[in-house]
Amino acid sequence: MIRAGDTIENPVTGERVTFLKTSAQTGGEFVLIDTTVAPNGFVAAEHLHPYQSERFEILEGEVEFKVGGKLVTAGAGDVVVVEPGTAHRFRNVGEGEVRFRCEVRPALNFETFLVTMFGLAADGKTGKKGLPNPFRLAVIMAEHFDLVRLPSVPAWVQRTGLALGAPVGRLLGYEPTYHSRTEPERLDPAA
User: What superkingdom heads the lineage (predicted)?
Assistant: First the structure.
């Protein structure tokens, strides 16, 4: 279970996330994370959250967001809000690390999804864009369909693809969650 102070890392996308407030702490209202993105780092894919909003407060560096089809470059002190159902992605366009605080509302199972995707990347089970093979991804996405979706494919088409791909993925032994061989770093090891 993720706790405040836990840090996970995605070596493929260059993202490092520290959980500041967890779903358990906020009664499911939100998750608050501190994110660092390495130079040339990026979120794995353009996506949307059908029922969640995200608020990004840039603390250091320069981040390029694509939000609803528009490019926005944000620097320290800027805030970018992504409303539910809005396609978005981000990438570090600067030469140094970028750091931002992100609040995701409501929490839903955001933590589990992030731990799964980062864990797969940390264990070398994703491609160069940070995504696992299509059958494993189908199993994960079928479980998290209310959390995250592709913006360019209608939801019914995605559901149909997942209904076909996820059972094959399960037959291959893939599960909707993944626990990395590497435990999250803890700010306070006694916690």
Answer: Bacteria
